[in-house]
Amino acid sequence: MLRELQITNLAIIEKLHVEFAPGLNILTGETGAGKSIIIDAVNLILGGRASSDLIRSGAKEASVEAVFDLEGREALLAALAEAGVECEGELLVRRVVQQGGKNRVFIGGGLATTSVLSELSRNLINIYGQHDAQTLLKTENHLRLLDGFAGALSLREEFASRFEAYQAAKNELAALEQGEREAERRLDLLSFQSGEIADAKLHAGEEEELAEERLRLSHSGKLLSASQQAFETLYGGDAALLGALRRMIGTVAEAGSLDHALAPVADTLEAAYAQLEDAALTLRDYAASVEAEPGRLEQLEDRLDAINRLKRKYGADIDEILAYKGQVDAELAALGNREEAKGELQQRIAALEGELEVLGGKLSKMREKGASELKAGMERELSELAMKNSLFETSFERSSEARSYGFERCEFLFSPNPGEPPKPLAKIASGGELSRLMLALKQLHPDSEVPTLIFDEVDTGIGGATSALIGEKLKRVARSQQVLAITHLPQVAAFADLHLKVEKGVSAGRTATSVEYLDPEARVAEIARMLAGARVTEKTLEHAREMIQEAVR
């Protein structure tokens, strides 16, 4: 709720600090005292139009500060947090209007824009009168008001959820269809790349193996000569090392028969002979293999060139090339499933369309029934508010295509005079009539989404028994929401939970507005003044007391 309001240098207000209370806050005072300026100040807090003409004469700027108590308003606190405004149950909003029309807005202590202020403040206060914040002047609010009255909000939310899924599926299908030509080009490219890598039949570590073999073959002459010479030295001809070693082994073995101490030596020489013989045979086979592959080096060079071409296109080494092929194959699989995905999306869209048709039909029936009941209720309530014979209608605009709110929009139509056809509220209703229309609607659907309601001019043109009825209806609304109301009728003022008297005075040659909180006796005096004007008698005071006592019963 709105807890405090501080106004500085706005019109005839030099400095004014007002504290409000829960329930029904009534502002009274003589014409021109500044009551409407207080409402104008609140409208600035709501992001309403600001003009340098509002600045008090002689001042450089005007400012309005408001403190809101949001304790228990979790939805509002969440909306503020989403907008980047942190507050712990209390919110400070400040609007500064400077000469030249410049504006500064502060929300929660941080600098903000007027548009952000407008977006946030519509969840804080609604003003019913001649102000931009008037809910009923915005036709986009009418359908939600009707849905609230008809008990259709939960069905509307379910419809909106299905519609969001429907739109997401349609967008996904559109993106799929729009990208078909590009997908075909991509498919051709990826198929070529995957095939090129597959044809190469690469395996991990191959490049290192080939490089090692190339090094060996590029020095094949030297390797052949070395292996052949070594073989000849070990095994070739009568002068071969192994032949000499064999003769030596025989000599040592013969000596070992004479002295057993030489027997182990003969065994060692025999083992050495076997190892040397194996080495010689390996050298012989190695030399033969070198001679047997005269064209292998050229094959190796071709293979390494092929690998290098792939590396330039797909990766720094064979591992990266193979990893890239894995990615390509995965994308190919996804692209190959496009038709399947397209079919699934089309089926899903058709199913969601069917669900929207069913839910939309239910929603339309609830709205039609709600509109009929709203018409009867509004015309009854308006008759009680001295607007007899007025007409209230709901006009529907149907659409074959679903929207997030259903298949129709609506607009409230109103005619205050018999014989005149109902017309849009913005074209026909005055500020006072709009206030009474909303007051009537609040009797039928006392929602409490917005914590503070301000009724301006609600009692215009009303008198007699109807005046007290307006007070009763305002009091009823104030049970669930904070209400601020400006009134000239004592019958309405008698219902106040907090009574504020707005006065205009002259100090140091300047006119200034002040606000007085009225205690019980001061309330009696103010209501007596409203009853009798300048001449207040004891009888008038007694009448005022009776009026207050009657209102609190």
Chain-wise SSE layout:
Layout: E1 2-10, E2 13-19, E3 24-28, H1 35-45, E4 61-69, H2 74-82, E5 90-98, E6 103-107, E7 110-112, H3 114-121, E8 125-128, H4 142-150, H5 153-178, H6 180-200, H7 206-218, H8 220-235, H9 241-258, H10 263-292, H11 296-314, H12 318-336, H13 338-384, E9 391-403, E10 406-415, E11 423-424, H14 425-428, H15 431-444, E12 452-455, H16 465-477, E13 482-486, H17 490-493, E14 498-507, E15 510-517, H18 520-532, H19 538-551
Parallel strand pairs: 3-13, 3-14, 8-12, 12-13
Antiparallel strand pairs: 1-2, 1-4, 4-5, 5-6, 6-7, 9-10, 10-11, 14-15
Helix pairs in contact: 4-13, 5-13, 6-12, 7-11, 8-10, 9-10, 11-12, 13-15, 15-16, 18-19
Coiled coil: 297-369
Domain RecF/RecN/SMC N-terminal: 2-503
Pfam families: SMC_N
Q: Report the radius of gyration as a whole number of Å.
A: 48 Å
Determine the N-to-C terminus distance: 26 Å
Low-confidence stretches: none
CATH H-level superfamily of the domain at 1-124 and 450-518: P-loop containing nucleotide triphosphate hydrolases
Largest sheet: 6 strands, antiparallel
Structural class: alpha/beta
Q: Output the number of helix runs.
A: 19
Biggest sheet: strands side by side, in what order? 2-1-4-5-6-7
Mean pLDDT: 86
Basic shape = elongated
State the CATH architecture of the domain at 1-124 and 450-518.
3-Layer(aba) Sandwich
According to CATH, the fold-level topology of the domain at 1-124 and 450-518 is Rossmann fold
Number of DSSP strands? 15
CATH top-level class of the domain at 1-124 and 450-518: Alpha Beta
Instruction: Classify the beta-strand content into a percent band.
Output: 15-25%
How much helicity do the residues have?
Answer: 55-70%
